[in-house]
Amino acid sequence: MLADAPSLRHAAHLLTVDADWLTAQTDWLSRNVDALPAAGFRGEAADTAVARLHTLVRPMTLPPEQMLRVAQVLSMTAGLREELDAAARRALALADHVTGAAPLAALLLRDLRALGDVLDYTCARQIDLLCTPIPDETPARLSDTPDLDLAAVHELNMLSSPVPEHPDVQVLESADGRLVAAVGDLASAASVTTIVAGVGSSDPAHLPAHLDRARTVAAATGGAAVLWLGYPAPGSVGRALAQEPARAAGAELQAFQRELARRFPDQRRVVVGHSYGSVVAGAAASRGGGLYADDLVLIGSPGAGVDHAGQLTLLGDHPQVHAMTNPSDPIALTVTEGAGVHGPDPTSPGFGAQVWPGDPSGNHGSYWEDPRFLARLRGLADQKNPMASSE
Question: Which parts of the sequence belong to the DUF1023 domain (predicted)?
Answer without folding.
Answer: 177-332
